[in-house]
Amino acid sequence: MISENERWVLSFYRTSEISGSLFFGRLARSLKAGPIQHDMTKHYADEAMHAWYWTDCLNKLGVEPLELGNAYQDQYLAAAGMPVNIMEILAITQVFERRVINQYAVHGRTHGIHKLVKSTIDRIVEDEKWHIKWIRDALKNMESEYGKDTIDDTVERFLQADREVYEKTVREHQERVGELILK
Ligand SMILES: [Fe+2]
Ligand SMILES: [Fe+2]
Predict the structure, then answer these.
(1) Annotated domain spans of the chain
(2) Which of 38, 99, 126, 176 has the most CB atoms less than 10 A away?
(3) What separation in Å is there between the alpha carbon of 97 and the centre of ligand 2?
(4) How many angstroms is it from 175 CA to the middle of ligand 1?
(5) Would you tell me how many other CB atoms lie within 10 Å of the CB of residue 62?
(6) What's the whole-model pTM score?
(7) How much distance in Å is there from the Cα of 61 to the middle of ligand 2?
(8) Which of 12-16, 25-29, 75-79, 83-87 has the lowest mean pLDDT?
(9) 32: phi > 0 → left, psi -120 to 50 → alpha, else beta; which?
(10) What ligand is nearest to the CA atom of residue 123?
(11) 4-173 maps to CATH 1.10.3720.10
């Protein structure tokens, strides 16, 4: 029902959602009680569900997920350096979540998309919108502590890393991602 390239792409999304969930799950475990802990816990649970939706979607399309190595996020840390405080963690997450939602939007618009893939994307994107919102609000609240300029500079640094990693990924997997590339 789907091509090998599509199977690879959906497996890539699944792996990426699992990595996101594990990353935020560890954070949620170590944060002290408060609004960030609250939202981070929901966030990590959402990403775990997204990984499940892709697993289920692939199965319903008659295939198993592929086992892929490094997730996209791992390359982020290599390109941008490890975030050193909670503000930097939220900044890198904000950049990453924007990338995710844009990628899903492009994929959701592709011609001839299977309706099961489309409905999975639509379901996930609803959660991703909230991810972007809560992090934007949390970063805004941190302006008094870190300074708006520092936060903006941090986001900009991670945006550059994001562009590098995205371009590298696209170059490496050109034949698989085809029309799913963001211009
Ligand atoms: Fe997600
Ligand atoms: Fe997300």
Answers:
(1) 4-173
(2) 99
(3) 5
(4) 24
(5) 9
(6) 0.91
(7) 24
(8) 75-79
(9) beta
(10) 1
(11) no
Q: How far is the CA of 50 from the centre of ligand 1 (A)?
A: 5
How far apart CA 51 and CA 65 sit, in angstroms, is: 11
Each residue of 41-74: pLDDT tens digit? 999 999 999 999 999 999 999 999 999 877 677 7
Instruction: Indicate which ligand has the atom closest to the C-alpha of 53.
Output: 1
Which-ligand-closest: CA of 51? 1
- pLDDT surpasses 80 at 126: yes
Which ligand is nearest the CA of 132, by number? 2
The CA distance from 164 to 158, in Å, is 10
| CB-based contacts of 116, cutoff 8 Å, min separation 6 | 57, 60, 61
User: Ligand 2 center to residue 114 CA distance, Å?
Assistant: 22
Collect all residues with Cβ–Cβ distance below 8 Å to 88 and sequence separation of at least 6: 154
Q: What is the rounded distance in angstroms from the CA atom of residue 29 to the CA atom of residue 37?
A: 8
Our CA angle for 93, 120, 75, nearest 5°, is 30
Where on the phi/psi map is residue 12: left (φ > 0), alpha (ψ -120 to 50), or beta?
alpha
